[in-house]
Amino acid sequence: MLFNSYQFIFFFLPITFLIYFYLTHKNLIKESQFFLLLSSLFFYSWWNVIYLPIILFSMFFNYKLGIFLRVKNTIPSKQLLVFGILTNLSLLGYFKYRNFFVENINIVFNENIELINLALPLAISFFTFQQVAYLVDSYKGKIKENNFLNYAIFVTFFPQLIAGPIVHHKEMMHQFSDTKNQQINYENISKGLFIFSIGLFKKIAIADTFATWATAGFDVASTLNLLEAWATSLSYTFQLYFDFSGYTDMAIGLALLFNIKLPINFNSPYKARNIQEFWQRWHMTLSRFLKEYIYIPLGGNRAGVSTTYLNLMITFLLAGIWHGAGWTFVFWGFLHGIALVIHRVWKNFQFKLWFGVAWFFTFNFINLSWIFFRAKEWDDAIKVLSSMFKLDNIVLLPFLENKMTFLLNDSVTFGRMFESINGDRWTLIFLVFAFIIILYFKNSMEKLEQFSLNYKTLFFSLFLFLFSILSLNKVSEFLYFNF
User: Fold this and answer.
1) 199 with 170, same domain?
2) 168, 169, 283, 323: which one is catalytic?
3) What percent of the chain has pLDDT over 70?
4) Residue 311 lies in a domain
């Protein structure tokens, strides 16, 4: 079930909301929490009920293991922690990476091991990370609460279950038992609907529009000219941002309806002026996890410069493989690791760039690296990347011909500018529009902080919501469902 579907918006959400608060109104608190848990499991099962046992096993296993880690009176707790982490990673590895490893074994050793036809269970990457963090913090004695119902809702809470934000137990579990959160809060409802409408608009009106050009450029077109290649890469760069940040906005808004506050996950990342700042703004809950549970345990920056650089590389290689089972993802992680190492060296020498130049280099590095993140095969990535720097086939819009005849030669022609990606002048308009939004507009979280219920916000929310609903002519999944 998708957030951007009629079933969710007009049936699942209102029914869940009304029954939940009816139960809390009758002071049936445990029953309301149990209902929310069942609703979340139903939401998860809607995709494919066959994978429900996986999340149930993961939830029960990690909850009980967390208790054993906190008691520390049987098996040595460090060994128990290692066992728990390996069990979680093995479950993730089997479903997400088995075929990837088998394919590479077949290539290297000239074998013919049969691949298995397994669909990736939804959210397995996200709930695995959340529960690994739970086990580590149980081992460190940071967790005191043993309420299974709160833990189960923490793992399965439907607004953030499928694609995050990657929530932390200490910021979530207490919210489900807070008595203030068990009463209808009209301010939270208005804020939730406001931010949900923004996220829905981002997904349907912006991200899905860019998706048509990105898909055509990466997956359909056999060749691209220079401007088509740049339009393809930028279309995916903007599609990914508006798709994933749109999902996160919707998740935050949905959680607010139930008086639950999810962490911020995006803070205008394309305004970043260096790669470190980008990761402080992009998918912030993933950055937090990578720092607290991979980079710092590896030693962080405590063991000298060379070890710091190595730890950065390991962290982002793992970040790459977490996103997807493919060498293009590994290479994407490698690129970001290298960029962070270069940034550290740059800082150590105290070099500085004018902020406009710094932004230009940072944004273009991010845009180029997303090519490997998006490409299904190496050839697709090379096709787009190489075409972005070819000057032998430039096609400009026809109305420019009279004004720019001096450019007319074998390399420059006038015609349909983005023909190979099924684009037109609207492609250019949307790209300019996207740059204006990301650079000069307040982001959705800033708007939420300044939210005031008045006619202006009411009509703004209604316009975004109604426009999005009327544009729901086709339902598309969110990009991070694939990861």
Assistant:
1) no
2) 323
3) 95
4) no
